[in-house]
Write a structure and sequence with these properties.
Order of helices and strands: HEEHEHEHEHHE
CATH superfamily: NAD(P)-binding Rossmann-like Domain
Radius of gyration: 17 Å
Number of helices: 6
CATH topology: Rossmann fold
Distance between the termini: 35 Å
Structural class: alpha/beta
Helix content: 40-55%
């Protein structure tokens, strides 16, 4: 899986390993989650570099005896007001959050066709909301949901299932500084029917569940893990 060095990616990789999966952990820092149980193999690569990703997949397939799943988690968020955001800034976010996700799926396809595997793409609640300053991020995550639907239809004949997990507001080490703003936290929690933010563990357990249960008839869907935020009043 990609983007495993911190945040949600670290939690998901650790949970998959805890449940007995051999997890290839691809990130620019090339580290595995600390204190994780199980087998995690680190790879240093940038998801925007197809050659690096292809080499990591080939090496992991040899070590693990094939590839049975892919989690596309690597991504970035930059806050830009639309009136001042440049096309280059938009392309930069789309390149990491959408184009690289497609490329990882494409590179994994031969392996997953052989194993009849599962892809889980990390989308976001922002993909269906209008969030000031987040045009690039939100558009990229909406594109990931669309990609998920299209690949699910195209690759169904190959036995490959494609799902998207779309978290809402989740506390991680990456956003903890922003959430020091108690007024911001209060506004968010008032909007969420459960009146709290999610935890990395909740998202990680959902993603792991998809692999553990592997329901063949479930494909192409984006599942929101947002405490009801997206459907609330």
């Amino acid at each position: 899986m990609t983007g495993t060095s911190s945040g949600l990616g670290s939690a998901i990789a650790a949970e998959l390993a805890r449940r007995g999966f051999v997890v290839g952990c691809l990130s620019r820092r090339g580290i595995v989650p600390s204190q994780a149980e199980g087998t995690l193999i680190p790879y240093t690569a940038d998801v925007r570099d197809s050659g690096q990703v292809a080499q990591a997949m080939a090496d992991f397939s040899k070590q693990a005896g094939g590839i049975h799943g892919l989690v596309n988690n690597a991504g970035k968020h930059e806050d830009h007001r639309s009136s001042s955001m440049t096309a280059e800034q938009l392309r930069d976010v789309m390149e990491t959050n959408f184009v690289a996700v497609f490329e990882c799926c494409r590179l994994a396809y031969p392996y997953l066709r052989q194993s009849r595997g599962l892809i889980v793409n990390m989308a976001s609640l922002f993909g269906k909301l209008g969030v000031p300053g987040s045009l690039a991020y939100s558009a990229s995550k909406a594109a990931v949901a669309s990609l998920t639907r299209t690949l699910a239809v195209e690759w169904a004949k190959d036995g490959i299932a494609v799902m998207a997990a779309a978290p809402g507001y989740v506390r991680t080490g990456l956003n903890e500084n922003a959430f020091q703003d108690t007024a911001l936290v209060d506004r968010i929690e008032k909007r969420v029917p459960l009146h709290r933010m999610g935890t990395p563990d909740e998202v990680a357990r959902f993603v792991a569940m998809l692999f553990v249960e592997r329901i063949d008839y479930l494909t192409g869907e984006t599942v929101y893990i947002d405490g009801g935020h997206g459907i609330g009043p």
